Amino acid sequence: MKKARIILVLILGLCLAFTVACTSEKAAPPAPESDKPPFTEMVMYTDGTPGSIGDLFIRTLGPIIEKQSGVKVVYKNISGGSGTNVMTDMMNDKKHVSVVAHSCSLPLAWATGSSPYTSDQVASVCSISTDYIVVFTRPDSPFNSWQDVVAYAKDHPGELKWGGSGVQGSQQLLHQLFMDELGIDLEYVPYDNAASVRVGVLAGDVDIGSNAFGNILTDIVGGTYKGLVVTSPERFDSAPDLETVGEAGISSAIGNSVWRAFFCPASYDQAVIEYLAKLIENAKNTDEWTKFLQNNNQVRWDLGPE
Q1: What pTM did the predictor assign?
Q2: Beta 208-212 vs 161-165: how paired, if at all?
Q3: Top CATH class, 2-131+259-300
Q4: Does the pLDDT value for residue 250 go beyond 50?
Q5: CATH value of 132-253 in 3.40.1190.10, 3.30.1120.10, 1.20.1070.10, 3.40.190.10
Q6: Ranges in the chain annotated CATH 3.40.190.150
Q7: Which of 26, 218, 228, 292 has the fewest Cβ atoms nearer than 10 Å?
Q8: How far apart are CA 4 and CA 7, in angstroms?
């Protein structure tokens, strides 16, 4: 428990420090002239697979940006490597102005030293939203509640497998919080992305899995998976039977969520970063975006590059 909380404090400190200042060393793209925008085309990256919540983010914001500004938006989905692959592609793209929709796993990777890039190589553009995490299982699983999982785990320590996205990311940290507070032993099995976790659960390769709520809500409501517990402080109207971690006696996980934000190479001129932030923030201040957040049980989160 103590180790997990120390990591949480470290992540929070990194996030706050990172959003306060962007790097002072700027190279490319060049500074724009005052009478015209710094670019007319941009690439929006995500490590989410098509149809995932990260994918829906960029494909919802992109058309709004195009309509508001005339800037052409190109989309790229690159998964794998616990979010490293998409970062590598963006950082190596010297031809385009690019942003990546990434999660709190990025500063966590900096904190643990598992990322090939450091915080001074990547600039914060703006925040997107936060999303609670749900633990789920396959529909024919013998587990019909989180209490069923706990009871079995106490009688069979180390036997159950929990599948989650990434190594040393937010979901592995949540797995550790659950074990520490409940005094159980669950094997964590890392997957490249949320979709792979869901496949692993259905195939029986793991007993339970964790996903951001926005990634799996429709499948839980439709009966493809059984939701066991969610980290939200209160139950969702869209899934009223889904128990919260507070009700399940896991107080350390109440409110635990995946936050997402846009990042770009720190080598960009400050004017470019500020224009990227302006485009995205303007798109966020629309009824279309507000409706998207509501429909996907997302909580708006506002932090800019300054």
Answers
A1: 0.71
A2: parallel
A3: alpha beta
A4: yes
A5: 3.40.190.10
A6: 2-131+259-300
A7: 218
A8: 5
